[in-house]
Amino acid sequence: MKTQIEIHNALPDSVESFLTLLQGSANTLLQAAQMLVRLKENDPNIIEQVVSAGASPRLVGDLLRVGEGSLNPSLLFDNSAAAKKVKQLPVSAQAEIIKRGAVEVVMAGSGGDTIMVPLHAMSPEQVKQALGPTGQQSRADQLAYLRRNSRPAGPDIDQPAYLARKDRLIINRPCELSRLQVIRLLEEMS
Contact at 8 Å (CB) between 91 and 72? Predict the structure, then answer.
């Protein structure tokens, strides 16, 4: 009798074969997640045993959540900033966001204009802005977040007025320089 590996090695390299293997792996993981839940029902210490046998604690925890129905399986191997946040949401909110495939994000300084950003492409800042404890934040909530976290207009007094680099002078805010200061800056840059 052929093993699973021998059967899979017999498949020709093609998109169809890849998708077949991927779907088979996904089904196997779902079965493993359901088995883990059953094992835990019989032995509450099973998680520690599985982890001490070499399984990743994060993966085991996520598989347990998949088996219990509190984590959408499509998030299992997604380590993006958005996926980390979506994993914390109720499963209904997870499903809604995954179905859309993108999150509506209010653009800073736009007066409320939005763009749809795919989950995998969201920056950590966009995640904080657009995803709340129950799912997608409303436009009003995102605008409030942007107002709270925007920098005030005007000079940043913690930053020096200028920075002299070897090949350039970076002026951070309006300032006055005497002739002597300019000469010293030019010497410093050469």
Answer: yes
